[in-house]
């Protein structure tokens, strides 16, 4: 299955704020709802195909869908305090169970992305620190006989243990190297000690790579959902759509119930493909 496609709502970048942690209504509700045995699980899984679930999951972001679903079942629980024809408490329990599975899947995806980002940052740090040592040595060699320049190199050449500090140190040393190469004599001396334009360009690229790794690691969670998460996400959306359709029919038939308000993702998807929600392949109870 392809990676994430266009989202219904604009997806967050790594620099954007992450949504607030959704309340775990679904997990709390499961304790008061009838259990889902293996037979019911098989039946409910057949209600919507994997392809139908993937199609909706590909168009949304799992963390946003999870937050939307938690709010949805919180409101739905109030509606279902009295029996509603066409939508059973077993089916509601199934939706709550799916939402808890989505919660776990989102957490697993985030942990995986963070582990990859940390590994990339460690690699970028080691490469950049080797460049720092070579750059500092060249600058000190070029500064021979110039106490002021030697002091400037020493002051900026910290021995950082944190990636952000190394990024700052490299930036300062590169500024000194650029200052050295401004004159013809300085450029010649810089070339003699190995601080060529090509080397300095490579150090600048390493600094950029370290900065990007820092941003990915310290940024808030983001990135594509896994295929496994996509499918659960799509199934949660399909089941919410089914519940909303069932309650709307009950209200049209005269039942005095309050309908839960669907979130933006569900509203958009149901508007684009309501027939798939209205006619699932499985039973309602």
Give an account of the 3D structure:
It is rod-shaped, with a radius of gyration of 29 Å. The protein starts with 24 loop residues before the first helix and ends in a 7-residue tail after the last helix. The protein has two domains: 36-116 and 227-278, no CATH class; 120-218. It is an all-alpha fold. It contains eleven helices and no strands.
Topology:
Layout: H1 25-30, H2 38-46, H3 50-57, H4 62-79, H5 89-142, H6 147-156, H7 163-180, H8 184-192, H9 197-218, H10 227-252, H11 264-278
Helix pairs in contact: 3-10, 4-5, 4-10, 5-7, 5-9, 5-10, 7-9, 10-11
Summarize the structure.
This protein is mostly helical. The protein has helices at 25-30, 38-46, 50-57, 62-79, 89-142, 147-156, 163-180, 184-192, 197-218, 227-252, 264-278.
List keywords for this structure.
mainly alpha; rod-shaped; 285 residues; disordered C terminus
